[in-house]
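Quick one: AMP-binding protein from Castellaniella denitrificans, structure tokens please.
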Amino acid sequence: STEPPHPVQSWPDAFAARYRAAGHWRGETFGAWLRERAETHPDRLAVIGGDQRWTYAELDQRASALAAGFLNAGLRQGDRVLVHMPNMPDFIAVAMGLFRAGLIPVYALPAHRITEIGHFARGSGARAYVAAAAHAGFDYTMLARALQEHQPRVEHVWIAEPDAPSGASAGSAPADPFPRLAALYDMGAAVPASVSRGSDVAFLQISGGSTGLSKLIPRTHDDYIYTLRESARICGLDADAVFLGALPIAHNFPMSSPGFLGTLYAGGRVVLAPSPDPESCFALVERERVTVTSLVPPLLLQWLDRAPASGRDLGSLRAIQVGGAKLSAEIARRVRPTLGATLQQVFGMAEGLVNYTRLDDPDELIIHTQGRPISPDDEILILDDEGRPVEPGQAGHLLTRGPYTIRAYHDNPSANARAFTDDGYYRTGDVVRMTPEGYLEVQGRAGDHINRAGEKISAEEIEDHLLSHPRVFDAAVVSVPDEFLGERSCAFVIPKGARPRPAELKRWIRARGIADFKIPDQILFVDAFASTAALKVSRKTLRAQLRARLLEQE
Ligand code: J2J
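--- reply ---
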């Protein structure tokens, strides 16, 4: 028998009432709005990827067919399901199918490996795992096998096959024993458009994890759909919008700001790129007349470098959204002249708060700021180290609460005690200043995570992996400015006895089953961390000292 999902600590009644009265929360659900769209414009294209082109009617049918399939297999409303898929149409069918059945997707990134997936499975109590067979040279069926060995609660595994030319797989039976996602589709099943209420948790998103391991973020239909509706409006999306999913769409940014979900909400068209590589994306922009996409700064740099000589017609692009990490003004300035589209800076977080520069803002704001909040009910505090509001225009710690910022992580009291104030503000860990116009400029970060090209890495998590090596006495991981990645990771290691080779340590960490982007870019050996006079420094101070030492040397 299944346990009910952990109760979610949500907004106090007075706040919820206010957000409903303001029209932010409307009791809409994912399952219901997809059905509505499919009824109003059944033949309009919704999802394009690989050799698939699905209309809204087809997407809606697929969502119902999968909802029926999941329930037939024995899953029950409220059960959590790990979704581990790259950009492929089935990702969207699975997400919509789970929503429709009242099942709770837990989104993992394609780069995640067994250690992270095991952690999400434990934390969410997931009963099922849906993955692509293989992607970017990695075999996810092996991961599925290891997962079921370690987490017997994960009773079900379904594997999605990427498109194969028809007949190609005929003779070759799959090597793994797992049922195929394709066999789960119960086409023609009669399924209600939605079994959920607006206030129900719709899915669990994964936090960047500033300290320790990633936390699970419960998002409700009401709060997330509010961000989709407003994001689509702020980004000018309508039925003519063609959104290119270039980043992995499991990321909160290309999922919801406005991302593929905001595009579908607005009745537009989603084009999925299997890889963010500029050449393959440019080909899709030209072929599908893409109007908008979302990029992280290093990817934007590649687009800017390669667009002029690509020979592709990129004239359909109207807006290029950039977020996930700080964009420098120099690069921001190149967007319009090179790509012929408006830059939109996006500063958001999976926990909630999202800021946008508006498309018609003066260049000054578009180039130099990370935008202003979505909602008039987003409350922003900028505090000094003692917790007092800073003077206007000064930098400080950003705290926020509002109609789409969570009040607590999923089932994690100790993280909640650190991350939320008593009156419900989320401590973002970001250091910002506010301009006289009310726009935010991200100055840096108080926490010790590394923002590597938009991927967040917890220093602590990687230190723990290093410490598991028999020849590592101590380790400290820090971020270092990097011209291309924004930041890269550097591990300082005190060896125990003979010094291991850096390549050996990297192999060791990789073999522990974690995402590649978390493997330190650089490993430096030192005899000691701090002078003996300062034996008892905090981990945070230590990391700051090591970072300073490294920057002095460069
Ligand atoms: C500087 N730092 C930024 C920016 C995020 C939209 C856009 C991004 C995310 C995201 C998201 C930044 N400049 N423009 O979920 O819906 C850093 C901050 C922030 C953290 C959140 C969305 N945009 N950041 O990146 O949950 O440090 O969400 O707190 O992955 O990324 O990371 P994440």
